[in-house]
Design goal:
Layout lengths: L6 H19 L5 E2 L8 H10 L3 E8 L9 E5 L5 E2 L4 E8 L3 E2 L8 H10 L5 E8 L7 E5 L5 E2 L5 E8 L1 E2 L8 H10 L3 E10 L7 E5 L5 E2 L4 E9 L4
Length: 232
């Protein structure tokens, strides 16, 4: 019988402990996970591609003085057992994202300067009609203020164009509707008639565009006027 502390017994125990690892190493196709930490992303992708592994990336902002595009973490861990086709997740550094400033209320030039100053790629401008004193000012932007985006991202802004707000005409006579439109800098457009048993003939029952819509100065507003239903 072997003594508990005999050298032979210790060798046998060690062989038993190593047996699973050796068995795994002998499984066809099974291999150890490469260590790609501190590699560039391109280097890591080449190395993992050679091992027939699928790569997924988690981006993380680089710390001050830290290189961009550097693998800082990996899953599975180095030397874990893997199979061809397994998925590998890499955490890779990138340039810190930029915060989009709020440029609403600014002119086009002011907005472009503010966006470039924040590290964005300037502003592409559209326009929309707006009532009041907002003409030439930014009334909408995309990305929204406070959004986090990559450096150089271009923003789209909407500049207000001088417009007129369509007044409420429903319930007015045709003469009253015309006067309201004149005061708003708009024109009376086509006049349709619809049968009505309740409304006074000539009263406005509908309009297009709808009340409150902002349109170009001088735009025509179509109205529908009440007409007494003819007896049958």
């Amino acid at each position: 019988m072997l003594h508990q502390s005999s050298p032979l017994r210790r060798v046998l125990v060690l062989l038993l402990l190593l047996a699973p690892s050796r068995a795994l190493a002998q499984v066809p196709g099974r291999t150890e996970m490469p260590d790609v930490r501190r590699h560039t992303l391109e280097q890591a992708q080449v190395k993992l591609g050679a091992a027939q592994l699928r790569v997924e990336i988690e981006w993380v902002d680089a710390r001050r003085g830290q290189a961009e595009g550097l693998v800082v973490r990996q899953w599975p861990n180095p030397r874990d057992w893997i199979w061809p086709g397994d998925r590998v997740t890499l955490r890779v550094t990138r340039e810190p994202l930029r915060t989009v400033p709020d440029v609403r209320g600014m002119t086009h030039a002011q907005a472009a300067d503010a966006l470039r100053g924040a590290g964005l790629g300037g502003a592409r401008a559209d326009s929309a009609f707006a009532a009041g004193g907002d003409a030439g000012r930014v009334v909408a932007q995309d990305p929204a203020p406070g959004a986090r985006v990559a450096r150089g991202t271009a923003a789209r802004i909407t500049l207000a164009r001088a417009g007129r707000r369509v007044p409420e005409l429903n319930g007015r006579t045709l003469a009253e509707a015309r006067a309201l439109l004149d005061a708003a800098g708009l024109a009376l457009g086509a006049q349709d008639e619809i049968d009505s048993d309740r409304a006074r003939p000539g009263t406005v029952l509908g309009q297009a565009p709808a009340p409150g819509v902002t349109v170009a100065p001088g735009s025509a507003v179509t109205v529908a006027l009440a007409r007494r239903r003819m007896a049958t």
